[in-house]
Amino acid sequence: MIPSHLRVTLIIVVVSYFLVILYFLKQKALNLKYTLLWLVAGGVMGILVVVPELLTRLIRIFGIQDNMNGLFLFCIGFIILILLSLTSIASRQNRKLRTLTQELAILDKRVRDLERDCAAAHDQE
Amino acid sequence: MENKKILVIIPAYNEAESIVHVVKNMMEQAPQYDYLVVNDGSTDRTLAICEQENFRYLDLSINMGIGGAVQAGYIYAYKNNYDVAVQMDGDGQHDAAYLEKLLEPIMEDEADVVIGSRFLEKEGFQTSASRRTGINILSALIWITTGQRIRDVTSGYRAVNRMFIEIYSKDYPMDYPEPEAIVSAIMHLGRVREIPVQMRAREGGVSSITFKKSIYYMIKVTLAILLCRLSYGVRRGKRV
In this prediction, what percent of chain B has a pLDDT beyond 90? Predict the structure, then answer.
């Protein structure tokens, strides 16, 4: 079982983790939409620290013998999930950026054409 | 047939050496068609030359790769109600003299997408043996996945009708788009036709595909073709 002073340390870690996220959110350095997964990860961590029996039972279901291994596996799983969501965000933004650049180029051409037509009309007068 | 609006899209990334010749060749051989150079965020004098020579051009402020540049041309064609769009590389490999031939199947409404192929009559510049091998593999892959035999799957010399101007303006593959665009065309039940053309070795600049990149190219394009085929499933798209 997890020793009680380790649990205290872990609780402090989880609380400061939430404080850091809160700080970033207040500074508007993080978008709440993209922070949800981080918050869920923090929440799960919190629950596991408060009720460590849950972790033990959960990892037994998956057939993992060692508590620490189970914990690491959970962490890695979460990190992979978060990285995947980051890649998906980057891809979506890439798509949006592309559309914007293309629209900008087409607008730029339209402005140039209009300027030319205006100048031509002006010359005729 | 004569009153169709036709746009020739010429994507250009760092083609300062060849772009003038390409556009002049286009204006001499086929002055009746509109053309549009798409400067893909070049770092050389391509943009300055376009301005100086008073070419018709789009200027993408960020380099987006050939796919993004060509798609910008299709969006322009779609918004300006062009009936037919042709894409022709900005490096001088494609001769505007073949435009008429390329457009014929579309004008006669016998095809939706026409690809200019250097391998049908095996004349003109045939590219290196290793590249031909790569192209043959991709061609076979497209044949297996879609049942259509297209020889020159990487040819960037193609013409499409209004239906595909619309489809490509909404969704055009990125990175190395040519083979994938063929699969997408077949999946949309487009009539894809290949016609023989001769190509030249590029006049200036460097090919975008170096040896190191070619491995990445093959893996990426193979995956893209499979994914493109999968994402349409057995049902295939509907003709619009």
Answer: 58
- Chains A, B: CB contacts within 8 A come to 38
> What angle is formed at CA B104 by the lines to CA B115 and CA B32, rounded to 5 degrees?
105
Residues of chain B in contact with residue A97, where contact means CB-CB under 8 angstroms, are 62
Please indicate if any CB of chain B lies within 8 Å of the CB of A31. no
Of residues B214 and B150, more confidence is placed in B150
A111 touches chain B (CB under 8 A): no
d(C-alpha B26, C-alpha B56), whole Å: 12
ipTM over 0.85: no
Domains along the sequence of chain B with CATH: 6-232 (3.90.550.10)
Long-range pairs for B142-146: beta carbons < 8 A, 24 or more residues apart:
B142/B179, B142/B182, B142/B183, B142/B186, B142/B225, B145/B183, B145/B225, B145/B226, B145/B229, B146/B183, B146/B186, B146/B187, B146/B229
Q: For residue range B68-115, what is the model confidence (pLDDT) as tens digits?
A: 999 999 999 999 999 999 999 988 889 888 999 999 999 999 999 999
- Check A109 against B58: CB less than 8 A apart: yes
pLDDT tens for A3-53 read 778 888 888 999 999 999 999 988 888 888 888 888 888 888 888 888 878
Q: Tell me the pTM.
A: 0.84
What are the chain A neighbours of B60 within 8 Å (beta carbons)? 101-102, 104-105
Q: Chain B neighbours among A 69-108 (CB < 8 Å)?
A: 97-98, 101-106, 108
